[in-house]
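Run log // design_07
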């Protein structure tokens, strides 16, 4: 049988149950967002273009290895930011949108790898929230 709660304690008991439930949901969401962020990093790494090694100033695969994820928790909000660390971060815009080569003649190919990983991550977040 359930515990008997006096009317005086009802509000406090309900508030405690709500806090426990909110805490459980928050933990599940935080764990899910962290997992989705790390999955997005793996996906972006897999889809990122890799240098052919012709430019000696950029080691082969350095851009691809530079992807990481930062998880920020602030007053009930959780954010997973996927980014390139280090000096290779400036390549992201050029590779995503394409650019003219140094000689100005040909246009480099666009690589929409970030938007693909972002769409997949958004769908996973929606599924996570629906499953709660």
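design_07 sequence
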């Amino acid at each position: 049988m359930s515990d008997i709660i006096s009317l005086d304690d009802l509000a406090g008991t309900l508030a405690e149950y709500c806090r426990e439930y909110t805490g459980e949901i928050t933990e599940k969401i935080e764990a899910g967002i962290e997992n989705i962020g790390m999955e997005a990093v793996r996906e972006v790494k897999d889809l990122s273009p890799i240098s052919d090694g012709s430019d000696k100033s950029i080691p082969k695969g350095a851009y691809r290895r530079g992807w990481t994820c930062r998880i920020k928790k602030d007053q009930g909000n959780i954010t997973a930011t996927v980014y390139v660390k280090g000096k290779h971060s400036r390549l992201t815009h050029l590779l995503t949108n394409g650019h003219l080569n140094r000689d100005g003649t040909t246009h480099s190919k666009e690589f929409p790898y970030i938007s693909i990983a972002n769409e997949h991550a958004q769908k996973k977040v929606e599924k996570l929230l629906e499953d709660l």
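The longest helix spans residues 7-47.
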